[in-house]
Design a protein that fits this description.
The structure holds two protein chains of two kinds.
Chain A (H helix, E strand, L loop, with lengths): L1 H18 L7 H11 L2 H24 L15 H5 L3 H9 L3 E6 L2 E6 L2 H8 L5 E3 L3 H7 L9 H12 L4 H28 L5 E2 L1 H17 L5 H17 L13 H28 L7 H21 L18 H32 L1 H14 L10 H5 L2 H13 L8 E3 L16 E4 L2 H4 L41 H18 E5 L8 E4 L1 E4 L4 E6 L2
Parallel strand pairs in A: 2-6
Antiparallel strand pairs in A: 1-2, 3-5, 4-10, 5-6, 7-10, 8-9
Chain B lengths: L11 H5 L5 H9 L3 E7 L3 H12 L4 E5 L12 E2 L1 H9 L12 E3 L1 E6 L2 E6 L14 E3 L2 H14 L3 E5 L1 E7 L6 E8 L2 E12 L17 E12 L9 E5 L5 E5 L4 E9 L11 H10 L8 H10 L3 E7 L10 E3 L14 H15 L11 H14 L1 H19 L25 H15 L3 H10 L6 H22 L5 H26 L3
Parallel strand pairs in B: 1-2, 1-11, 2-8, 5-13, 11-17
Antiparallel strand pairs in B: 3-7, 4-7, 5-6, 9-10, 10-11, 12-15, 12-16, 13-14, 14-15
The chains are: A alpha+beta, B alpha/beta.
The complex binds flavin-adenine dinucleotide (FAD) and protoporphyrin IX containing FE.
Chain lengths: 534, 512
Amino acid sequence: MAAAAGNSFTSPAANALYGSGLDVKDVGGVLQRLFNGTSGWTIALTVFLMLVVYDQILYIYQKGSIAGPRLKIPFMGPFLDSVNPKFEGYKAKWDSGDLSCVSVFHKFVVIASTRDMARKVFNSPMYVKPCVVDVAQKLLRPTNWVFLDGKAHVDFRKGLNGLFTRRALELYLPGQEEVYDKYFAKFLKLSEDAGRKPIPFMSAFRELNCAVSCRTFVGHYTTDEAVRKIANDYYMITAALELVNFPIIIPFTKTWYGKKAADMVLEEFAKCAAKSKVRMAAGGDITCIMDGWVKAMLESQEYREKVAKGVPVDEANKPAILLREFTDFEISQTIFTFLFASQDASSSATTWLFQLMADRPDVFERVREEQLRVRDGDKDRKIDMDMMDKMVYTRAVVKETLRYRPPVLMVPYMVKKEFPVTASYTVPKGSMVVPTTYPALHDPEAYPDPDTFNPDRWITGTAEQQVKNWLVFGTGPHYCLGQTYAQLNLMAMIGKASLHLDWVHHATAQSETIKVFATIFPQDDCPLVFTKRE
Amino acid sequence: MRSEVPNSSRSMILRSDPDVSADVRDQRRLRDHDADVVIVGAGILGCALAVALGKQGRSVLLLEKSLKEPDRIVGELLQPGGVAALEKLGLRDCLDDIDAIPVYGYEVIYYGQGVEIPYPENANDPNRRRPEGRSFHHGRFIQKLRDAAMRTPNVNIVETTVTDIVKNGWTGQILGVQSQTKLNSDYYFGSLTVVADGYSSKFRKQYIKHQPVSRSKFWGLELIDTELPRPRHGHVVLGDSAPVLLYQIGTHETRALVDVPDNIPSASVKNGGVKSHLRNVVLPGLPKSVRPAFEAALDKGALRSMPNSWLPPTTNKTPGMVILGDAMNMRHPLTGGGMTVAFNDVVLLSELLNPEKVPDLGDTKVVLQQMSKFHWQRKNLTSVINILAQALYSLFAANGTDPSDPGYTTNYSLTLKPETADPQLRVLQLGCFRYFQMGGQCIDGPVGLLAGIIRQPFVLFYHFFAVALYSIWIMLRTRSLLRLPLTVVGGAAVFWKACVVIFPYIFSEVKV
Ligand SMILES: Cc1cc2nc3c(=O)[nH]c(=O)nc-3n(C[C@H](O)[C@H](O)[C@H](O)COP(=O)(O)OP(=O)(O)OC[C@H]3O[C@@H](n4cnc5c(N)ncnc54)[C@H](O)[C@@H]3O)c2cc1C
Ligand code: HEM
């Protein structure tokens, strides 16, 4: 195929050259004419046209046999579309073929839409590494662990796994509940202040999730005011996260505001890290993910010191993973990736969850019934892990929400060496390849009647067995680190809300239209009215 | 490229948020050890600042290594300017019920001759009342201040010994402190950390380039039931040895503070140490009525000393932290100015850090700007007190100093060393005393400066050089005309000496 592309590259130019009847001997004269008789403008125009042609030819060459526009809008490609991405646009793209492509500025992007194609990309760490989106490097810093690759990545991740075990997750539940209580009261007040008229709750859900994340990740090391500032400014980070951005950060643009907000969050978390180190060294208990990580570092350090001194250490007391000591900034960077990874996805899921439940009173009723039951009839009972295990129906509702409206539609990867994704097509090195989740999650073979929201498919149906299609959290070496926590959070949140709140969705014509804002949201931002449930 | 300016409608929850309630903040202090302000040291400055900021609604953690009533020989006479500042802070009642003694002014005794220097009447008071100072037992006053802090909403006092400063390893911002509570490691975090751990500050070294210089100590004795020549006045006894201060601090107790320059021969071990210096050199120079009690105290033997330090002020430039009180700025205690400076600093700082001006104390940029203003605005009062204390001490302590001493002012001017017991200083001393004897403006000005009432550095400058010229005039008058040429040269030398005494301290005040 490369040969075919090569042909189409040479022939037209050659034809043009010969067609004009020029002889090789004349070439010198042509050059002379060019330099003598033409102005700088002509040269500039010529160079420009040559670049346009080069850009087109390169695109056609890279596109090869896969689906995609026949020609590219010069240089920028469909950049303007990516400024304002539309779900329908993406969907059309996925439907256009197993593999399809676009080219934006210098970036060539291949989209892998079917389940198997997506899985192939997710599971080919030899050829691809995550690149999140272009601007993410600038916000998270290139030294961030999420950009690590291969063994370095696996090793780093191992050090984090302990923070998401069942035992660890149980420690964070009381903190989460504290935040739910606070925000449920705020929701009531918002509706109260709006005279019980519907108002969009999307941004309120975003703020709730940011607060829950901060509480789980950095505990009480930061103030409520700081959390609110992070929640508020986080919007700008999301806004900066488009699939493709203008290559440099220009002041007062979205990426610029995003970078500023990211720096603020990094600074706030670095402070938390310094505090956590002090508190853990003083023997404090673990109240958040950062504590857990810092404590593991201290234990590793203690172990190493003992070994260095020749003090015998029982194998049983050897830390499972030996960690080095991370600087405040490194800790901050890492915790920031958790916030970064969780905030948009969790907010998306939360918004759909509240909307879908409100629209389906039967589902709502069953969740409520189960929630009261697992609390033995005491709606104020504090949540623990055993209780979570018993929430069979609530879990099904959460999973069905994630399947029906998967927050992350696409996961961009970078091709690090020529990637023969199929027998007939090799993705060029340096391009972006993007596995998608939505088509697999709406595959009628795996999930019959896929466009219907049906939690029972997870209880009495076969949905639970479709592990290959369950791409909500990705798969392969980079699969979502927070997936268990994320689902527990959604279950605990909606469960508790169902017992303490009533809410009504005032559906509009836009309620089922999907808006893409990094993740997906209802186009009308979910107009709701909350009232207290007595 | 669409530019996205953050828009307030996104923070709809923000606006409907009720103010963070008091119990949330209490909980943050007690459970999380986290506050707006962490203050190291519940001494003079720390307590007052805790009260002032707590009243403004800031959440404050006040850390103190020992909450037992301190027993010290410092901070026992509060000048009227300090009393006024206490009043502004709503802490005037801390002077009640501690058996405090009113102070109406000073009695300066030069070679046995006394001159009364009352605090000047207050021009702003319709009744033209004279302001009063107070003298008392330091420990009792401190306990009153700590009580007041404890009763202030938003403030908690914790008994814990601060061991280290906590820093953001990325930005260098100070985030609070590590400490030791009983036997346990502990920690306290704040948006702003105030270091007010006193004269021997453990934490100043890393952040302040100057270190204190001390060339003498005050040795303290407690005299029982003694009669001062002029009751209810602070006494300054000047003569052949370094100055002695005397003031009543309770119904039965009078404090004697004797300045003993380092390395003077009469206090050397060979000559029987400080005790024999006090007995043989100091005792004979004291007013007769005081000697029996002084001797009795000497016999009892409970001698204590404190270094008399000089530390010029510096601007706080560390994000997240400010250093205040004796930790940041000290002057010789001869004029009893330390607490007056501390309370006035608290008044000024609490105005500059008022929540209206600085909504968030974690906003280090704004706080640093305010600290720069603080550095310059406090000078109206503190430069006067600092320069006065140092200049007066240089003037009157010279008689007893050790010639080998490198001198106080080395840091600031290597060439301008006041010589010991030199004739020019003698002339200036006498001139100063005679100046006071003239009374009227000649005492109202100087004592108004010392009392912390007059806040104009120029007034100090004016009186200082008036004294210098008057000294020269006296010299001219008392010497025979025949020696006029020599006398003129001598006058110039005296003037030069006056400059040498004062300018280093003035220069130290105009530095950042
Ligand atoms: C001999 C002498 C006489 C003086 N006489 C007078 C006078 O008559 N009038 C006057 O106005 N001024 C006088 N002063 C000056 C005055 O005492 C000081 O200026 C004043 O006390 C300074 O207050 P501060 O709050 O900075 O320090 P302090 O009052 O000394 O308070 C410091 C506090 O910090 C605490 N602390 C220290 N380290 C730690 C730690 N690591 N952790 C926790 N807590 C800690 C200490 O226990 C103490 O309570 C005198 C000074 C001297 C040396
Ligand atoms: C509903 C919520 C969430 C969804 C839908 C989601 C989805 C995803 C997806 C699709 C990926 C990419 C996986 C891949 O490349 O194979 C991912 C990665 C990741 N997620 Fe989540 N996520 C959610 C919540 C969270 C939370 C709460 C955390 C918090 C810790 C988190 C942390 C991460 C991290 C760290 C990665 C990168 C892992 C790596 O590169 O090794 N996610 N997530």
